[in-house]
Amino acid sequence: ETLDGLVTNPPTKEEVERAKAKILKNWELAYNSSDRVGLTLSEAIAAGDWRLFFLFRDRVSEVTTEDVVRVAQKYFKPSNRTIGTFIPEDNPDRVEVPDAPDVAALVASYTGKEEIAVGEEFDPSPANIDSRTNTGNMASGLEYAFLKKENRGDAVFANITFRYGTPKSLLGRTTAASMTGSMLDKGTKTLSRQEIQDKLDALKARVSIFGGRSSVSARIETNNANMAEVLDLVADMFHNPSFKEEEFKKLKEERLAQIEEQLSDPMALAQNKFGKIMNPYPKTDVRYEMSLQEEIDAIQNTTLKDVTDFYKDFYGASEGTVSVVGDFDEMAVKAKVESHFGNWKSPSKYVRITDPYVATKPAEEEIKTPDKANSMFLAGMALPINDSHEDYAALVMGNYILGGGFLNSRLATRIRRNDGLSYGVGSQFYGSSQDDSGAFVAYAISAPENTAKVQAAFKEEVMKAIKEGFTQEELDAARNGWLQSQTVSRSQDNRLVGALSNNLRLDRTMQWSQALEDKVAKLTVKDINKAIAKHINPEKMVYIRAGDFDKVQKDIKP
């Protein structure tokens, strides 16, 4: 009905203009990022000519309601749709797609539009970032970090986070916390959900709001000219949410649909089981890890009143951080932030939920997911190591060589490239910044018939690393790759703004990152081999396998 309605009940001019505004907004935001420009231009070149990238933008701006109806009538035919059930017809009516036009003729007389700001050549070193970042506090307790720099397209990124609650006051309210954050962009007292989106499109902005167990965050991407108005809009979402019943009902339906789909998904089931084993807290603890079915039950039992009560009990800016990076008027942005959040006191106190080291017993679990082509393998162990531990830098590099370096890691070389057992494989090492805890985790996605082989190969490679250690050549390559990744990360404003926000929370500067890089630069092979042998043990790990293993057994002939 929706697709056919484009012909029988044509869209309004307002709907077409709204769609155009959103598409053009996304195009301009992408054009502000050099990496996205490079990727998209390469796609245009592959299609015939780099100017197709710009031609697309210009063509979108020219689309009319009549164009939409004409194209819908030509291409959106019922007989050309892919649906869940296929019913064959004796004389199918198929769309005859015309040949691609002559690209050379298409772009022969093309002329571009006005140029945009190209930005500065920014030095992403920790020292330079620290020297250019202004930090401070506001009356409510809100902390801020502002890094002004000239950006392509006058782009600006911001991160706003408010923390709330205590381990005791948040107990039993985790679902309400998450849904409260998700309701903020669904309407305010003066703007509907659609009007918020229309305004964001008009302001060429993206805003994402995420509510968690003990914090809520807003991520902003826009440009200098619109930053002030975007902050006004985000403040309206935080201060004046409408909490409409119909929007809450939609949110519940969306959440339930997502989780119900995961009930048969190997990856989701494996991750959930792994999380429960690695976080063995009882239901009486706010850190308790719910099963997927428990999440479904919690969502079904959560009411709109639970959400509005949560907002009243916890929302405020006393424990918050705001970081802004890019091309913006610092005085104007600071004034906006202070006006909207500087005196927004939290109604209750905040006490951080700790995550101390908890030793987990070795375990092995198998989850059966019938009729699923892929299987998920997870392995890991908790470690009493944080990011201040003397072995932290060595374990960062050891993990990078073992499985963190993606295609060039030992696990990828053995399991994916040489043995051909897995579609994707890797490992992660984590060390807390505030507690004494850490973890080593490895994963692999494969066909169910290969999962046992993947696990065996994983154990062999880890034991080889423990017994024989790594080589100087491996260390040199990994260190170079890791150090380059740190520089690239600081060069990307969307990641840098998060790093500044995290530094505010931890009372750190970028000097901490520089100190870690200095430690990595001085590491020897002996340091890494010693740390891996000391802390990593495949016999003490938790192993989870999820897949259609019954089918594998049936396919094995006697």
Features:
558 residues; alpha+beta; 5-stranded mixed beta sheet; 49% helix
Span between termini: 52 Å
Q: Roughly what is the average pLDDT, rounded to an integer? A: 93
Give the low-confidence spans.
Answer: none
Number of helices: 23
Could you explain how this protein is built, in words?
The chain has 23 helices and 11 strands. By secondary structure, it is of the alpha+beta class. Strands 1-2-6-3-5-4 form a 6-stranded mixed beta sheet, with helices on both faces. A 5-stranded mixed beta sheet has the order 7-11-8-10-9, sandwiched between helices. Strand 9 and strand 10 form a beta hairpin. Helix 18 (451-468) packs across helix 22 (525-535). The model has no long low-confidence stretch (mean pLDDT 93).
Helix-strand blueprint:
Layout: H1 2-8, H2 13-31, H3 34-47, H4 52-62, H5 65-75, H6 103-107, H7 126-132, E1 133-137, E2 143-148, E3 155-163, H8 174-183, H9 193-202, E4 206-211, E5 215-223, H10 227-239, H11 245-262, H12 266-278, H13 292-301, H14 304-314, E6 320-326, H15 330-341, E7 363-368, E8 375-383, H16 392-404, H17 410-418, E9 422-431, E10 438-446, H18 451-468, H19 472-491, H20 493-506, H21 511-522, H22 525-535, E11 542-547, H23 549-555
Parallel strand pairs: 2-6, 7-11
Antiparallel strand pairs: 1-2, 3-5, 3-6, 4-5, 8-10, 8-11, 9-10
